[in-house]
Amino acid sequence: MDLTLPPKVTPRAFARLAEINDATDTPKALRVAVEGGGCSGFQYDIRLDDPADDDMVIEGDGQRVVVDATSLPFLENAVIDFTEELIGARFTVENPNASSSCGCGVSFSM
Length: 110
Prior knowledge:
Blueprint: E1 8-9, H1 11-22, E2 29-36, E3 42-49, E4 56-60, E5 63-67, E6 79-85, E7 88-94, E8 100-101, E9 107-109
Parallel strand pairs: 1-6, 2-5
Antiparallel strand pairs: 2-3, 3-9, 4-5, 6-7, 8-9
């Protein structure tokens, strides 16, 4: 699938993924997917996983972020980042395609 503007991953997200993978014997890629559900219609599924053959792989700092073909159109020109706030630390998605999102930042609508 050809996208005009594929998702971007910040150096901070790659650095945090490297910290996580350095602490384990089995390094994994960070999978960012979009699924139906959540309070706004769609939700992000962000987890450690192995890449599949049809995934888009974004590499940086020796780390990999993968996005499945079904999720790619929803994540066009999105920015995958890592944030640390008072409520906790997490990987986030800044998605210009989302028309609205809920307060938790995990659920959105198109």
